[in-house]
Each structure stands twice: as C-alpha cells, then as structure tokens.
Amino acid sequence: MDGTTVVALSTPPGESAIAVVRMSGTGAVDILDRMAGASGPWESHKVYRKILKKADGGPIDEVLVTVMSAPDSYTGEDVVEISCHGSVHIYSSIIEEALYLGAHPAGPGEFTKRAYLKGKIDLTQAEAIADLISAETQLQARVALEQLEGSLSKKIGKIEKRLLEELALLELSIDFSEEDIELCSRDTLRKRSEEITEELKQMIDSEITGKKLRNGIRVTVLGPRNAGKSSIYNALLGEERAIVSAVPGTTRDLLRERIHIGGFTYYLEDTAGIGQTECEIETKGISIGRKAAEGADLILFVIDGSAGWDDESRKEFEKIAGKNHILVLNKKDLGADISCEKYRPKTLSGSAAEVSAKTGEGIQSLRKMIYKKTVRDDAAEIVKERGAVSSRHAAALREAVDAVKGVIAELEGAGAVEIMSLEIREAIEALGKVTGRSVAGELLDLIFSRFCIGK
Ligand SMILES: Nc1nc2c(ncn2[C@@H]2O[C@H](COP(=O)(O)OP(=O)(O)O)[C@@H](O)[C@H]2O)c(=O)[nH]1
Ligand SMILES: [Mg+2]
Fold first, then answer.
1. Rounded distance, CA 396 to CA 180, Å?
2. Which residue range is the domain that position 358 belongs to?
3. Does residue 97 share a domain with residue 54?
C-alpha cells in the first residue's frame, strides 16, 4: 500500500459469460477515465455502461463499470470493477491497458492485504476470506463466515480486555513499601489467570479439527490385487473413476479424488495392488501406493473376504496395523472365508468393515466409519460452537497460555509485580498476533500468498 494502483482479473481465467477486472488505488479512477474516454464524475457504487478503448482509440469492449470510492470499498481505497465479456482476449486487453496506464499487477491476495492494512478487516477476517473462497461444504463455509464476521476477533478481544483488567488490578494492589501485592488480590489474580488459561486452551483445542476442516483428510486404499480396491474407491466416489477389472494389476498409478463426509473434505486415493510382479510399472505403482499410505490419515486395507488371507497380504497388513486403519473385507456377496474371522484385527487402531462393492452393501456404513476414524465425534459441533483455529492462531494462543502460566507461577512464588505485568503484556502481545495487531511483514506475505490473485 505504497500509493500504487493494482489491477487483476478477479474471476477464474478462461472463457466465461462475464469476467471481472478489478483495480484498487489512488490512480484507479484516473485509469478508468482514460480507458472510458470520459472523466467522471463516477457516483460511488453505481453501475455505468461504457465502451472501453485502447490509448490508440481501438475499442476493447462494452462493459459495466462500478466505482467504489474510498474509504467505502473492499480495500478501503478507490476500487474500480469492470465487468466485461468473458473472453481471454478482452480481459487481457483491459489488464494490459491498465498496466500501460500505470497500474501494477496485483499479487496473490493483494486486495485483501490492502483491506487489512487499511484497517477494514483484521487478520483473522482476511484469513476467513481465503477459507470462504476455498470452502466446498456448508460446514466449511459456515465456520469461515463466522470468522469473517469477527467471531474469533471478538473472543480474542474479550480475553485481551480481561488481561488489561488484570494489569490494572496488579497496579492497584501494589504494596508500596514492599513492591509486592496483597494476599486477597493474589487470589483474585490467580482465579482470573486460571480462567483465561482455560478459555485459551479451549480455543487451542479446535486446532486439529480446524486443520482437518481446512486442509482435508487423506485416505489411502491399500491391499492385494483384485481385492476390489478400485471397486470400493468407485463406490465411495459414487462414480466409475478407476478402471475395475478381473485382470490383476489393472491399477498402476495413484488416483486421487475428493469426497465429502459430514462437512469435511476427504482426499481418497486408489493404489496399485500389492503383490509380487515382474512388471516394472506395477512395481513402481506399488511403491507409490505404500508411500501414500505412510502419510495418510487413514488406510483402508481391502482384502477379498470370500477368499480370505494369504501370507503376503497378512505380512503387508501387519506393516500398517499400527497406523490408523480400517480392514475392509470385500465381496461379502460371495460369502466370508473362515480365515477372516481368525485374523480379525485386534489392534486398537483398527476396525473392520464387511462390504460388497458389487451390491453396495456396507458402503454407507464404511463412509460413517471413515468419518469416525478421522475426526472426533463432536467435530462438527466443536467447530460450529468454538470456531476452528488454524495452526498459526494456535501457536500464538499457546504463547499467550505460557505467559499467563508465568503469572500463576509468579503468584505462587515471590509475586513480583514487574514480572507479572511483563508476563501479562506478553500475553496481550501474543494475542495481537492472532488478529494481526502485532505481526511482522514477512509473516503477512506468507499469509496472503495463500490467496488467489484478484482477491
Ligand atoms: N462378487 C464381487 N466381485 C467384486 C466385488 N468388488 C470387486 N469385484 C470384482 O473383483 C475384480 C477386481 O476388482 P478391482 O476393483 O479392479 O480390484 P483391485 O485390483 O483391488 O482394484 C473385478 O472383476 C471386480 O468386478 C464385490 O464386492 N463382489
Ligand atoms: Mg485397482
């Protein structure tokens, strides 16, 4: 926000009905004037129909233009939005012309960053905008929208206020002769500090669920060839994505698709079947599959339940038995082999599902099981009630907890006022990192790099 005017395409690139080019900055209206061949006045928030032309007079497009004058705009600066016909040539020409007239290309999230720097929104709200744009489910959108409306900032604000009250209490209670605090104030301070710690901890508690809600959950389908992995993969997706065939070694590459369960995004991965093979490509596929399983949040280990276990599959299964997994006994329609009962997983991390990818039996309960094995039972309620803090928020909140714990420790010890007030100030400073009151420039760049260009 150094006085420059930025321009970017705000709609997805490629052919579409309409494309929106956005400019922000002190020069935005002037650039528009020159392209529209007429100077304003542009009434703020009013739509105008204009023909834009190049500097050489050549027409670009007939467009709808809206000027949103500072400070009543998304960025807090003068903003110009141009809705043009959604042709690559047209929107590229408008952007080129704006650049020619002095605008700079906007970086990822630059408009939102400007809104933040102008104080239109705080950092938690800016982050919520990125979350909202990438939301795929109602739950993800709802949590992001609440954060955008300031739910997290308000909670932080309340805690900050209580910390400031602690500071005041501390200063009031100084026994001037000893630079120490009175006993009754000690009790109040300790009680308050413990309450604040508890509140902060509750917020941190939503971190893991929040991460899963934002980043998605990886589920890898693993198991011997012809067990029906691809069939189960397709059944869970609800479409014929992977090739299913009686020929062993059909799947060789790793396939990845998204499904939604309970408002969470799952990245489902189908892999090449495990087994001895001469085929170089299949061998590669098997090793890619194993690698994928290593980093997965959950493994679906599929075997043909009607054929039962063989030594190779059992050995393979034992390798992953310590990880979070579901043993899927497929082909239930063909009956169950006795060995399945005998080798049922007894590990805590595992559970078993009997399904038939062919008839669809058990697929619905497998979906539920996947959810249960990857998010806590009350996940949806937690994020609805408490919001979902990100790892960045949680790191700052943990710093605040440490500082408040420092106050409690001091109260139990010498009770030195300077040390306690220092700790409280540190806690306030840490909370400021969440809302963005106290963050460094590099961190801001990192946060806004998550955004798409034009937002
Ligand atoms: N009867 C029966 N056959 C199945 C079932 N699931 C898969 N198959 C068949 O088993 C063979 C291998 O299936 P596929 O999904 O390609 O197995 P993958 O190699 O583990 O991916 C195919 O002929 C499927 O039609 C099932 O639930 N019941
Ligand atoms: Mg397959």
1. 30
2. 216-378
3. yes
Per residue in 315-326, pLDDT (tens digit) is 999 889 889 999
The preferred substitution site among 230, 244, 253, 304 for testing ligand 1, maximizing ligand atoms within 8 Å of CB, is 244
Same domain, 330 and 235: yes
List, as ranges, residues with CB under 5 A of the ion ligand 2. 229-230, 251
The predicted-structure confidence for 173-190, as pLDDT tens digits, reads as follows 665 445 555 655 788 889
pLDDT digits (tens, 9 = 90+) for 336-360: 777 776 666 555 456 788 999 999 9
The parts of the chain modelled with pLDDT lower than 70 are 1-2, 173-184, 341-350, 439
**Nearest alpha-carbon partner for 259 in 285, 232, 286:** 232
154 & 115 share domain: no
Q: Are residue 300 and residue 185 in the same domain, yes or no?
A: no
pTM, entire model: 0.82
Q: Rounded to the nearest whole angstrom, what is the distance from the C-alpha of residue 216 to the centroid of ligand 2?
A: 23
CA of 264 to the centre of ligand 2 (A): 25
418 is a domain residue: yes
Cis peptide, bond prior to residue 105, ω within 30 of zero: no
